[in-house]
């Protein structure tokens, strides 16, 4: 990703940008001063907080609607971010936004808690507005730029962008749940939505289950192959494009919330809130948009029953409910407000006293400072969502509690429950269960409160919003700096290579023939690889080998090689070279070192979420792909330090989100040298994506060809964007070799 906008204003055209964010709303909103002049101010919100620093450092642009209908605004700059407004009419807001987005998609994706409505004119408006956003993003994007599209209002934009600008790297993040197929299948335009999303290179979801629901819908409706997080989508000219569908749980700027909470004036405000509420023993707090997915009525019902049966009293416990206005013109929301306010009125009428109110209800939003004071004042936080993509309120409460006190009661149907397992988890539909959880929270001993909150805070701070955005963009842009297609210089080098008498085509597997996936056992080569390898095997004077850091048994399982393919595993420690048996020999002291190595790494992996151990014949690998960047770095450092002291003779090898320890030293360079000797190759082609492949690139000789897959520094002379390009490269070698054979045959005949 380049770091500056490519400005062509001098030529009479608009500037373009290397990073473009697209969302329904811009990160700014207009404000009118007392003298009637208009200006722009930055909107509060987690997404803005997450992306602001990155947007400034890359001279990025943000495309979206400015919040006012039927007005056109020219692009402008606000606080270091270029703003590209998209115009929407009042009727489009009614049909595209309030209609299709919020009265069709929103209830459908939230498990049909309210019935979705399907209107063709809403769909037509949705298509029309999505196209306008796509066109604006395409115009703002520099050649090869990264475009990150956000949320359910813009699900068609990725495909439209792909058609307009195939050079772009496109990501999409869905901030709300993605439903199971049985629910999703109700949507009349179900295939069109999937096709729109599949225009992206990376589709992010809040939960692992959401990503799985999406992949299953793709299999059911399109029949595309899916392996782990990877989906093979047909592309022009009979090729395939690899799309990744993966979960990236969003978070908050935890440090900023704690900083606010430590301010003396906010702590004083928290004390004032408690005093204004009559200094009850326990303050319970609910903070939600007024939405039927949030389970507000369920918590009010549970609280009312606890007051009715005498388990709680208004003198001891008060519930503060903040219900900020939401979609006030949409029918179900109007009815919900009436329902909630009626329930609050009845409960207060039945149980409030002159000095104590049962529920302190507030139908408006508050600035962040006031919310932080409320979080500090609250002893129990109630999050009773019936369905929620994440629910950042739960994380905000945890971040604010620097005193490590307070209890979080959290719905298991909120995405936050996947991470915040030390909360008191509930099923909000089970009113008796909610009542029991409230009583447990109110009576929880201080030591248990401190223990739970300490664990919750560690999770929130380790997985903050900066880690979320960097993880998504890092996954999206791996290889994105490389132009798509096969460079002409590479094609020429392959023709020269093909003229040698004996050629070795040696290939790394993970990240080269197959994309990286969360579960190594799910890795499979991209479509077309097997056919390309077979073409090479059928040619005289060509040998093919797979060179991997995997154990050879694992490599055999995932690669399913043809009989004539040579195999080396564990960085060359294991080989299978034209023999039915795997060659390996370890001495007693090496076996003892393996046992000690396993004990250390297993203990580290057990203590750090998102890490796991891969056993190899001569070593072990600690994988950190699913851990946060901070946890991954800490786990790798612990492993390196402990094993450096315990077993100083180990070979340590850094890879992509993995660190490997071996009791016998060998590299992919050693493996490639052995393969060269075994095959008697005059020329070698080697392709790899990882730092461990640099050892193989280092032993290439003049006339050999090294191919780096993806971005990053490398000794290889050539590179392509990703594994989907490798079968094309192998096909070029086969074509060139076949042409050479035809030339030689013709010359011999003459």
TrEMBL record:
Going by the entry's taxonomy, the superkingdom of the source organism is recorded as Bacteria
What is a single molecular function from GO for this protein? alpha,alpha-trehalose-phosphate synthase (UDP-forming) activity
- Listed CDD domains: GT20_TPS, HAD_TPP
Single biological process term from Gene Ontology: trehalose biosynthetic process
Pfam families assigned to the protein according to its UniProt record, in alphabetical order: Glyco_transf_20 (PF00982), Trehalose_PPase (PF02358)
Q: State the family named in the UniProt similarity comment for this chain.
A: In the C-terminal section; belongs to the trehalose phosphatase family.
Q: Which NCBIfam families match?
A: HAD-SF-IIB, PRK14501.1, T6PP
Identify this protein by name: Bifunctional alpha,alpha-trehalose-phosphate synthase (UDP-forming)/trehalose-phosphatase
């Amino acid at each position: 990703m380049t770091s500056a906008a490519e400005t062509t204003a001098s030529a009479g055209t608009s500037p373009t940008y290397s990073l473009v964010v697209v969302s329904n709303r811009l990160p700014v909103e207009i404000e009118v001063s007392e003298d009637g002049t208009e200006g722009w101010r930055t909107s509060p919100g987690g997404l803005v907080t997450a992306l602001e620093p990155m947007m400034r450092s890359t001279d990025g642009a943000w495309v979206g609607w400015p919040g006012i209908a039927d007005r056109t605004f020219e692009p402008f700059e606000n606080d270091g971010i270029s703003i590209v407004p998209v115009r929407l009419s009042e009727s489009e807001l009614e049909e595209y936004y309030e209609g299709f987005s919020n009265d069709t998609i929103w209830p459908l994706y939230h498990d049909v808690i309210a019935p979705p409505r399907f209107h063709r004119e809403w769909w037509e408006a949705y298509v029309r507005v999505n196209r306008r956003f796509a066109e604006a993003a395409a115009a703002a994007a520099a050649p090869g730029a990264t475009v990150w599209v956000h949320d359910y209002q813009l699900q068609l934009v990725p495909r439209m962008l792909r058609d307009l600008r195939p050079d772009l790297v496109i990501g999409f993040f869905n901030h709300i749940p993605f439903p199971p197929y049985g629910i999703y299948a109700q949507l009349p335009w179900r295939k069109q939505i999937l096709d729109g999303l599949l225009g992206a290179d990376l589709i992010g979801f809040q939960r692992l289950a959401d990503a799985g629901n999406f992949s299953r819908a793709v299999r059911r409706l399109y029949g595309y192959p899916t392996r782990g997080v990877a989906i093979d989508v047909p592309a022009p000219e009979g090729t395939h494009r690899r799309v990744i569908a993966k979960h990236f749980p969003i978070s908050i700027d935890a440090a900023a919330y704690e900083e606010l909470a430590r301010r003396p004036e906010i702590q004083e405000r928290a004390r004032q809130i408690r005093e204004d509420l009559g200094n009850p023993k326990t303050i319970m707090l609910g903070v939600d948009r007024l939405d039927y997915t949030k389970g507000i009525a369920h918590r009010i019902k549970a609280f009312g029953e606890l007051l009715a049966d005498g388990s709680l009293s208004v003198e001891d416990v008060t519930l503060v409910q903040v219900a900020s206005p939401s979609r006030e013109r949409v029918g179900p929301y109007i009815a919900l407000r009436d329902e909630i306010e009626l329930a609050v009125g009845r409960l207060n009428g039945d149980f409030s006293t002159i000095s104590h109110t049962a529920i302190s209800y507030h139908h408006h939003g508050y600035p962040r400072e006031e919310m932080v004071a409320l979080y500090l004042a609250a002893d129990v936080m109630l999050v009773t969502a019936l369905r929620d993509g994440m629910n950042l309120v739960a994380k905000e409460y945890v971040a604010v509690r620097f005193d490590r006190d307070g209890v979080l009661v959290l719905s298991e149907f909120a995405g936050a429950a996947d991470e915040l397992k030390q909360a008191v988890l509930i099923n909000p539909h089970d009113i008796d269960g909610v009542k029991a959880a409230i009583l447990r929270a109110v009576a929880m001993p201080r030591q248990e409160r401190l223990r739970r909150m300490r664990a919750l805070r560690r999770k929130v701070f380790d997985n903050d919003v900066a880690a979320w955005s960097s993880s998504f963009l890092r996954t999206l842009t791996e290889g994105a700096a490389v132009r798509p297609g096969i460079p002409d210089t590479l094609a020429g080098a392959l023709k020269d290579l093909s003229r040698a008498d004996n050629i070795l085509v040696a290939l790394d597997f993970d990240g080269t023939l197959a994309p990286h996936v969360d579960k190594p056992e799910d890795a499979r080569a991209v479509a077309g690889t097997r056919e390309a390898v077979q073409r090479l095997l059928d040619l005289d004077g060509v040998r093919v080998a797979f060179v991997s850091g995997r154990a050879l048994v694992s490599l055999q399982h995932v690669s399913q090689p043809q009989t004539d393919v040579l195999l080396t595993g564990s960085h060359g420690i294991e080989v299978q070279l034209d023999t039915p048996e795997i060659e390996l020999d370890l001495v007693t002291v090496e076996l003892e070192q393996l046992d000690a190595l396993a004990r250390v790494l297993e203990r580290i992996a057990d203590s750090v979420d998102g890490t796991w151990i891969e056993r190899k014949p001569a070593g072990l690998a600690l994988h950190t792909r699913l851990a946060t960047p901070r946890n991954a770095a800490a786990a790798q450092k612990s492993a390196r330090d402990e094993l450096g002291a315990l077993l100083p003779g180990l070979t340590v090898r850094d890879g992509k989100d993995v660190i490997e320890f071996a009791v016998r030293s060998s590299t992919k360079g050693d493996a490639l040298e052995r393969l060269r000797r075994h095959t008697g190759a005059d020329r070698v082609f080697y392709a790899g994506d990882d730092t461990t492949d640099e050892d193989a690139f280092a032993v290439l000789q003049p006339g050999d060809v090294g191919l780096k897959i993806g971005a990053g520094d490398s000794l290889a002379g050539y590179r392509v964007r990703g594994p989907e390009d490798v079968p094309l490269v192998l096909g070029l070698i086969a074509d060139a070799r076949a042409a050479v054979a035809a030339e030689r045959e013709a010359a011999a005949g003459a």
